[in-house]
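User: Could you check the structure of this?
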Amino acid sequence: MSDFKDRIIRAAKLDVSLYEEVEADTTALKQAMLVVVLSSIAAGIGTIAKGGLSGIIIGAILALIGWYIWAYITYFIGARLLPEPQTKADHGELLRTIGFSSSPGLIRILCVIPGLLGVVSIIASIWMLIAMVVAVRQALDYQSTLRAVAVCIIGWIIQSLFFVVLFSIIGNIFQ
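Assistant: Sure, the predicted structure tokens are below.
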């Protein structure tokens, strides 16, 4: 357990060697998934007054779905459309590194403190985005951080559009 906790802290510190470590560790997938779930639960607890217990459960499920989709989209864009010559990666490597890039989201539990919701949410979002760029750069063996930023932005746009369409369909079904 201390190894897992250490990995979470190193991921939040943007420790490049951690992202290389989990990229190579095929047994780290469960840990990466747990980081995504814990980050989502932290956000749910931070906003429990608005979402309640069902918000935490639905949020965790949606976070796992989003993580999987995000990793696949990032893999496709980064390894197939925008690779550098040395880029060699698979979907699992992106799942593991991107999962750990969710670790800064654990601070969202602090949103439960009145008055902190906005500032903590912004800090967590920016910090997770920076961690995601580090994760993508390492998993795809990029030399260019700018390329990793581009892959993350393109992936975010595609994932956002996917969820807009999904929620539109779900909304129409339940009307």
